[in-house]
Design a protein that fits this description.
- The chain folds into two domains: about 10-100 and about 170-375, Fumarylacetoacetate hydrolase, domain 2 (Alpha-Beta Complex), CATH 3.90.850.10; about 105-170, no CATH class.
- Helices cover about 25% and strands about 25% of the residues.
- It is built from twelve helices and 18 strands.
- The strands form three sheets. Strands 1, 2, 3, 4, 5, 6, 7, 10, 11, 13 and 16 form an eleven-stranded mixed β-sheet that branches. A five-stranded mixed β-sheet has the order 8-18-17-14-15, with no helix packed on it.
- About 45% of the residues are buried.
- The model has no long low-confidence stretch (mean pLDDT about 90).
Length: about 375
Amino acid sequence: MAHQSFALESALPADWRQGLFVGRIDRGEGPTPIIVAAGIAYDMTPVAPTVSALVAGGSFDTAAGTSLGDLLDVGPSPDSDAPVRLLSPIDLQCVKAAGVTFAVSALERVIEEQARGDYTRAAEVRGRLEAALGGSIGSVIPGSEQAATLKDALIDGGMWSQYLEVAIGPDAEIFTKSPVLSTVGCGAPIGIRSDSTWNNPEPEVVLLADAHGHAVGATLGNDVNLRDFEGRSALLLSKAKDNNASCSLGPLIRLFDAGFTMDDVRDAQIALRIEGEDGYVLNGASSMREISRDPEDLLAQSLSEHHYPDGFVLFLGTLFAPTQDRDHPGRGFTHKVGDVVTISNDRLGTLSNPVTTCDQAPPWQFGLGDLMRNLAKRGLLTA
């Protein structure tokens, strides 16, 4: 499948020349970590062979790197035939995700579960759940006494769910989204399983953390989800989430500095646009101010006691509730091949990906062994 038309400058935030960014490109030799500072791209392989090692070093000083010139002149593109390819901005980090961190998303997960993955029952289940709640759960603090009281009431009404447990209980849902090196970057196709009939994008802010769980930056991500699979059983989560080309990140990771901090993440507004070849258009928005758990709390719950020596990235969850009907009343949204998903934020840029099926997306073939052999061949591995 061909990549969509890609203009790098339109993918970058408006103030990208004032920010500090890390990412990866391939100039024909293999994955190369870069830092972009004041609009200039620096090859950081003289400092570290991977983004993971660069973060572990704790310094993003470009003085030891090699200047490649203005990023727009370097001209990285997601196209496999481009002289300089733009890759997903991470490499050896584990890819983790927090689920059900927004009240609206929690309700949609409960609907999937109660409907057993059958989209034709979604509208009826949604009505019963809203009646049982008798109001919004958005103001409920997870793990609080109020949350425990609500839990008892829902159990009595026969509407309790494992999704509500992680939405308002003391423990967040944290799962592994994708294997190391499997993520795709901005402009690359994203995949849905060919046997899925009810699915959606999940536009999210994604934190980059070091081995100690300290956040060093943020980017945008699409946690592609199969509602029919997860709705049939939560034990099918891996089939719903972890598939070829099912996780995109980018365009670059914005590093925290004096001009961009965790408070900017907490205040972030995320815009979503889906455009179909059939003329269908869906616009949505998420406000991180509505998240149920603070990003720092989610990071702490993800760390799992010194579990990630190469660091990790964490999807913070989505407010996006895909209830706008596409073809059938009451069905809500589902993807079609050829859709273009665009996720944007004024400080993080724009992540855009065309949709195909997993079997038609470019296969993931560059694994850990390939990366090690490539780095060794380039003389980038040292004792």
